[in-house]
Amino acid sequence: MRIYAGRTKQYCDGMARRSFLQIGMAGMGSLGLGSILRAKEASRQQEGSDKQTSVIMLWLDGGPSHHDTYDPKPQAPREYAGLWNPIPTVVPGMDITEMFPQQAKVADKFSLLRSVHHNTGDHFTGAHWMLTGRGGVNGAQKAGKYPFIGSIATKMTRARESGMPPFVSVPYGMSVGLRPGYFGGNYLGNQYDPFTTGGDPNTAKFKVDNLALPNNLSVSRLADRRALQGHLDGLRRYADVSEEFMSLDQFEQQAFELVTGDKARLAFDIDQEPEQTRDRYGRHSWGQSTLLARRLVEAGTTFVTCHFGGWDSHWDHEARMKSYLPKVDQAVSALFTDLDERGLLDNVLVLVMGEFGRTPKMNNGGNGGPPLSKGSPGRDHWGNAMSVLIGGGGLKGGQVVGSTDRLGERPDARPLKPGDIHHTIFHVLGVDSTLHFEDHTGRPIIALDQGDVIQELL
Predict the structure, then answer these.
(1) Is 299:162 a contact under the CB 8 Å cutoff?
(2) Is residue 84 part of a domain?
(3) CB atoms within 10 A of CB 266
(4) Confidence check: pLDDT of 149 > 90
(5) Mean pLDDT estimate for the chain
(6) pLDDT for residue 19
(7) Which residues contact 431 (CB under 8 A, 6 or more apart)?
(8) Residue 294 counted as domain residue
(9) Contact, 154 vs 166, CB < 8 A?
């Protein structure tokens, strides 16, 4: 059932798109949400997993410097070392940048992977590796070839609570300027793309348009099963009878609740949070996006991604990091503290990552031109080494897995690949990594084809 909700602005092709609220799929794909949920339930029963864990991924789009975050190199030459001094954390031997003083206080709740690499400096290839576990794309061929690991996971698990979308991106899923980019379902179908909030959770009266009803249609009217059945009876006069119209079973009811029920609407209402909690996360877009992610997993969403963009700092690196790093520090430390206080830390896995690291050696600010012609020095693309923060979800905290060499250029011990991270995520969620899904040609593709669970975290 589609409800007309007005027109949108014209796109670059000159076409205007009508806006619809589509009951049975809530705007998330080409199939009815009821049949999607039935498939998920069948998959869950086949897998036999009863885990109720969730994931929050903070995506630092553009690639953060490992030297200026979680892998400072104070003994390296000045042009290589992190811009700021390292500081000790509550975990002996785990030093991080002095720009992360709040995370230093909760370092026992997370672990650091310092030897992650995929050896490519291409934004698109790197993002595809980190988000799907596979290569095959580049700046000339940007289209995704494989589904996001969160799309695979939520296809299997569905939402942890009915009435909630299983996969949400705040404010949107985007990788290297592509929406949903490599956060999409690809050959799984666009019904496994993320449900996006849009907007800025830090603004006054933030709301999710995808959950809003047109003014001429009330929730009470829409929620009346008898009235809905009447609408479907009318539709049958114009359409072939199909399984989608046969009954309102529990799965149609879940789809219905997403749009008409209070559960999702309340979960997305960040204004319900106390002012003190909102202040703790930070009164900025990244902080409030992270707080909203916590609200969603607490309400029953399985996978939430938050987009923190702007990390491609080829010049003026120091100034940009002075702005960005304190926001990340506040949001990440608040999230771990909040999850712990609410008794959710063992059930929610947190990741902080981007598509690659940045060159250990600072450039001259010219970006191919005369020195300083673009600005002050920066750091370029570097896929040979990067750091990933991982914690919660029942994993060990306070661990440092892997290391880089003296200059931070390459893994020195325990090299890790993106697939190792993905296997660990699937382990936490209780998803079988050996399952196969058909691609666009009908060829069966295994969910994860590289790596293994990071045993040091178990």
Answers:
(1) no
(2) yes
(3) 12
(4) yes
(5) 86
(6) 38
(7) 47, 49, 152, 153, 156, 157, 447
(8) yes
(9) yes
CA distance 370 to 379: 16
| Nearest residue to 82 (alpha-carbon basis) of 325, 413, 421, 368 | 325
Give the containing element (helix H, strand E) for 21.
Answer: strand 16-22
- Gap between the Cα atoms of 89 and 128, Å rounded: 32
What string of H, E and C letters represents the secondary structure of 27-91? CCCCCCHHHHHHHHHHHHHHHCCCCCCEEEEEEEECCCCCCCCCCCCCCCCCCCCCCCCEEECCC
SS3 194: coil
For 399, the token pair is 């661990």
Tokens of 363: 């450039």
Q: What are phi and psi of 165, to 5 degrees?
A: -70, 140
Q: Which of 38-47, 64-73, 87-96, 350-359 has the lowest mean pLDDT?
A: 38-47
Judge whether 170 lies within some domain: yes
pLDDT tens by residue, 372-395: 999 999 999 999 999 999 999 999
pTM: 0.85
Assign 124 a pLDDT band (cuts: 50, 70, 90): very high
Q: How far apart are CA 376 and CA 373, in angstroms?
A: 8
Q: Which two tokens stand for residue 242?
A: 């199909």
CATH classification at residue 81: 3.40.720.10
Instruction: Decide if 306 contacts 286 (C-beta within 8 A).
Output: yes
Q: Is the pLDDT of residue 40 over 90?
A: no
Q: Which tokens hold the place of 249?
A: 């079973």
In a domain, 218, yes or no: no
For the chain, the domain total comes to 1
The label of the residue with tokens 């954390």 reads 89
What share of the chain in percent tops pLDDT 90?
A: 75
The DSSP letter of residue 213 is P
What pLDDT, in 10s, does the model give residues 251-283?
Answer: 455 566 676 678 899 999 999 999 999 999 999
**What single-letter DSSP state applies at residue 240?**
-
What residue spans of 224-351 are helical by DSSP H? 225-236, 250-260, 262-268, 275-281, 285-299, 317-341
Full residue range of the structural domain in which residue 371 is found: 53-212+261-457
The amino acid occupying position 187 is Y
